[in-house]
Amino acid sequence: MLTWLQNPPKTLLPLPSLTPNPSPPFPICSISPKPTKTSLKSLHIPTHPTPTTTDTGLKFREKILYLQALKINPTKVLELNPHLRSATLDTIKTVETCLASMGIERSAIGRILDMHPQLLTSDPYIDLYPIFDFLLNDVVIPFNDIRKSIIRCPRILVCSVEDQLKPTFEFLKEFGFVGPNRITSQTTVLLVSSVELTLKPKVDYMLTLGFKRNDVVNMVLRSPGLLTFSIDKNFRPKVEYFLKEMNGDLGELKKFPQYFSFSLEGKIKPRHRLLVEHGFSLSLSEMLKVSDGEFNARLIEMRLRLLEDKQL
């Protein structure tokens, strides 16, 4: 018995508690001999530690607080841009940094991102800086005015340079937006309009009214907003009222194309009816360009003159 203990057999294994097996270099996955489709789908080989629920919740909460600090509606933007859930906070912050580098204030950045949530997960170097480069070098908007262009028309940030901005810019240059009439920060809003679906139909509509092309060009260059107005909701009802109720002449519209920028129900009809009621008439510019106070004062003055003339 003593001899056996002094010379233990070579097949005796070491005790597990004394010499533990080393950890395997890769995670071990248990797979049944005949895996089914369900078991294959559920097979998961982790490549990195999965964050705990607490860590994930904290990071998501940080994103929500960041959005709220920018006065962005988290519920709305998460619904419109589901990719925002998986985006890191640093990724989102790079968008703010990019916009801020163009001189846009944080309050304006919040409004822009709330309007266009897809920007929150955009890549500034792929999606944003090419737009700024186009505005600076092709349209030749001064750097200090880029901010004004973006604030006036945030939609420009979600437009394709090649598919949208460049074709429209070329059309506008051919139309007459060159030299002193070139595109500025006040008219960059025109760049987001489709040439075929928006700009050409409006030009064609004005031609059908009886204007010559040169007349249309001059009217648009004097009042670029004409290319942003709806044919059905703006042009057609205002033209109809001008021709039928005001017995107007197209020549007056050529002189004052800004007529289409005034509210039909809020300003054009009420002022015209007051003039008709008292037997007066004014040109379109005299009737519409002044404030309500100035218009009423002018109306009173005209009535007093009429009374004086009657007394004489």
From TrEMBL:
UniProt record, GO biological process: chloroplast organization; DNA-templated transcription termination
GO cellular component entries: chloroplast
Signal sequence, start to end: none
Recorded family membership: Belongs to the mTERF family.
InterPro entries xref list: MTERF, MTERF_sf
Keywords, comma-separated and alphabetical: Transcription, Transcription regulation, Transcription termination, Transit peptide
GO MF term list: nucleic acid binding
Highest classification ranks of the organism: Eukaryota, Viridiplantae, Streptophyta, Embryophyta, Tracheophyta
Official protein name in the record: Transcription termination factor MTEF1, chloroplastic-like
The gene coding this protein: LOC107780477
